[in-house]
UniProtKB/TrEMBL annotation:
SMART domains given in the database record: AAI
UniProt keywords, alphabetically: Lipid-binding, Signal, Transport
UniProt name for this protein: Non-specific lipid-transfer protein
Taxonomic source organism: Eragrostis curvula
A matching Pfam family: Tryp_alpha_amyl
Stated role: Plant non-specific lipid-transfer proteins transfer phospholipids as well as galactolipids across membranes. May play a role in wax or cutin deposition in the cell walls of expanding epidermal cells and certain secretory tissues.
InterPro entries according to UniProt: Bifun_inhib/LTP/seed_sf, Bifunc_inhib/LTP/seed_store, Plant_nsLTP
GO BP terms: lipid transport
Superkingdom to which the source organism belongs: Eukaryota
Record domain Bifunctional inhibitor/plant lipid transfer protein/seed storage helical: where: 34-118
Amino acid sequence: MKKSSTAFAGLLLSMLAVQQLLAAVRAESADVVCSDLLDELSPCLGFVQGDEDVPSSECCAGVSSLVTAADTAAERQATCECLKSAYGQINTDLSAAQALPADCGVTLPYTISPDVDCSTIE
C-alpha cells in the first residue's frame, strides 16, 4: 500500500511540475515589456507632445512594430496599459496621441486615452 501511495505522489508532483511549466510558457508569450515598447516609440515624442506636425518615419516604424507584435488579446491589453501609463507620465497632446496610429497608416483596436479600459480589448 505504501509503495502505491509513493508512486501516486510522485505522479502527482510530476503532473504539477508540467502544469507549472506550461503556464510559465503561456505567460511568457503574452509578456509585453513596457520599457522596450516605449523605446520603440521614443521617436514619436516630438509628435505626441505637439512639437512636430507629422510623425517621423522612425516613429511610424515603431507604431507599426507595436501593432504587429501585439497579436493576442493579452498582448494588446498589456500594450494598452503601457501606453495609458506613459500618457500619464509625459506631457502629451491627447489629439496628437489619438491621431498617431492613423497618421502612421495603422489601426489600433482601441483609442489612446487616459480613460480607456484596456481589459475590454480583444
